[in-house]
Amino acid sequence: MNNKNTALLMIDIQNDFCPGGALAVNEGDKIVELVNGMQKDYPVLVLTQDWHPADHSSFAANHDGAEPFSMVEMPYGDQVLWPTHCVQGSEGAQFHRDLQTNNAHMIIRKGFRPQIDSYSAFFENDQQTPTGLAGYLRERGVESVVLTGLATDFCVNYSALDAIKCGFNASLILEACRAIDMDGSLDAAMDAMKNAGVEII
């Protein structure tokens, strides 16, 4: 792959999504070394960071009697109610200790609005509120993005789909991602990405 005009997106490689975390993805920590090694190959490096207030509406704990991983209807559509995770300033919200972050050109924090969740690096879950990433990438001359991170079937998937919608070429490095795979969510995500034109590597 010609990596000129290509950005490496490193999605939510945070303590709460790694083993021992509040919303741990199986083997989530196993991608860190690979992602670190990839950084030298790309001219633009972007980290994303889930960054929720404690009263976030996507937390099951903020809905009376709700169980984690149950579904509710939000003004913007269906929403999974998650265990409390990646609370602003908490240890769980920090990047994995072995992840090289000093090389990053930008850190996109998402999910900081209490009333709306944000899986994608490009848009909040209403699909209307931008994070500013697309504009940043365009101003840097980026035409393609390569996606790594956690989790394949949620934040990585939504980011890949939105990259395509924003006019970028998108590739997913499967080995550098891990999935939650909740009720068939991984197969659904893979189908959605392939159908949208995301290259799976």
Average pLDDT level? 96
Write the element-wise H/E pattern from the N-terminal end onward. Answer: EHEEEEHEHEHE
Strand elements, count: 8
Residue windows where pLDDT falls under 50 for at least 5 positions? none
The span between the termini is 11 Å
Portion in beta strands? 15-25%
Q: Strands of the largest sheet, in order across it? A: 5-2-1-6-7-8
Q: Can you describe this structure?
A:
With 201 residues, the protein is of the alpha/beta class. The chain has helices at 32-38, 133-139, 152-165, 185-196, and strands at residues 6-11, 44-50, 71-74, 77-80, 106-110, 144-150, 169-178, 199-200. The strands form 2 sheets. The chain has a 6-stranded parallel beta sheet. A hairpin with a 2-residue loop joins strand 3 (71-74) and strand 4. Helix 3 runs parallel beside helix 4. The radius of gyration is 16 Å and the shape is globular. 42% of the residues are buried. The mean pLDDT is 96.
Relevant terms:
alpha/beta, 201 residues, 4 helices, globular, two-stranded antiparallel sheet, 6-stranded parallel β-sheet
What's the topology here?
Elements (H helix, E strand, L loop, with lengths): L5 E6 L20 H7 L5 E7 L20 E4 L2 E4 L25 E5 L22 H7 L4 E7 L1 H14 L3 E10 L6 H12 L2 E2 L1
Parallel strand pairs: 1-2, 1-6, 2-5, 6-7, 7-8
Antiparallel strand pairs: 3-4
Helix pairs in contact: 3-4
Summarize the structure.
By secondary structure, the chain is α/β, with parallel strands linked by helices. The chain contains four helices and eight strands.
